[in-house]
Specification:
It contains nine helices and no strands. It is mainly α.
């Protein structure tokens, strides 16, 4: 009786791996990104460094873009905005600046990986889609929710045209400072940005 070839074999179940083993994979990905960049990273290299099979990695993450994004998420590269609700929009946005600054201090040079991967995503549609789904869309929705609460509390007029652009402004400032100045957006920088640009547009008193 003939055996099934790879193209006809039933899909393999995703096996369960321990959190410790998962972190080994993520650390290998981050190390390889630092050593050679996104383009040079391969599933084969991660498998070799962690003494795992390629099939194990593909079962867990489907491919390179998903694995890289998961590794970034595991180290909290997306900024920790969960749970921010100070009771005012200005307070919420200041708390975002504080969370971003704290993340930058903890991650240090590792934060550069986000920028490097973001640049690679412009040339890789699969990576761009994975980044948007796992990181960017979540940040946008979180900030949109803060602004929506501010509108509901009457702090900002619902028809204020600046409401639409708050996520773009804030996330843009987070990401772009390194490109323009070679420095990451810390708490002080983002607070000044909020007070000089975002708050006046929204009609909030700094």
């Amino acid at each position: 009786m003939a055996t099934q070839g790879p193209e006809t074999a039933a899909p393999q179940r995703r096996s369960k791996i321990s959190p410790e083993r998962e972190q080994e994979f993520y650390q290998a990905v981050l190390d390889l990104l630092q050593e050679g960049g996104y383009e040079a990273l391969t599933i084969e290299a991660v498998a070799a460094r962690t003494r795992a099979s390629r099939s194990t990695l593909y079962r867990q993450w489907c491919g390179k873009p998903q694995l890289v994004v998961a590794a970034l998420r595991s180290c909290k590269r997306p900024f920790a905005l969960e749970g921010i609700d100070t009771g005012s929009l200005a307070g919420d946005l200041r708390a975002v600046a504080a969370a971003v600054g704290e993340a930058g201090e903890k991650c240090g040079g590792d934060t550069a990986l986000v920028y490097a991967v973001g640049h690679a995503a412009l040339q890789d549609p699969d990576l761009l889609q994975a980044l948007r789904a796992a990181l960017i869309e979540h940040e946008v929705k979180t900030i949109q929710a803060m602004v929506r609460r501010g509108v509901e509390r009457g702090e900002v007029a619902a028809d204020n045209p600046a409401v639409e652009f708050v996520p773009t402004q804030l996330i843009g400032a987070m990401r772009v400072r390194h490109l323009l100045e070679g420095r990451f957006a810390d708490r002080g920088y983002l607070t000044r940005f909020l007070e000089a640009s975002v708050f006046p547009a929204l009609g909030l008193t700094p």
